[in-house]
Amino acid sequence: MGKALAQMVLNATNMSVLLNNLTTGVTYQVRVAAFTRAGMGPFSTESRLWMDPSALTPNPRSRSTTNTASAGSGVLREPWFALLLGTMALAVVGAFLAVIYLKKRQAAAKELGHIKGAYDT
Questions:
Q1: For 98, which of 20, 24, 46, 117 is 20 to 30 Å away at the CA?
Q2: Overall pTM > 0.90
C-alpha cells in the first residue's frame, strides 16, 4: 500500500472531485471513506486511475505552460498588459511632443534674443 497523497473534506452535496497535479503515464489507486458524527466509515474498494497522456485536454484556468510561444500569447490577452502598453505608448508620445515643444521654444528664444524691449537697457 502506498502513501496517502491527499485528504479532502467535502459536504454531502458534492458528487465529484477534481484531482490536480497528477503525472501522466502513472497509475493511481483511489479509495474513499465517509466521516460522520458516528466516526469514519469503511473504505471503498480500490479504484485504479491511469493518467492516459493521449486523453489530456488543456486546463483553461491553468496559467503555467511549457510552450513559450503560447505563454507569450497568453500575456498579450491580459487586460493589465494592454493597459501597460497603452500607458507606455502615451508616455512615449508625450515625451516626444515635449521635446518638440522645448526645441521650438528654444529656437523662438534665439530668434527673439536680439530684440530689446522698452524696459531693457
A1: 117
A2: no
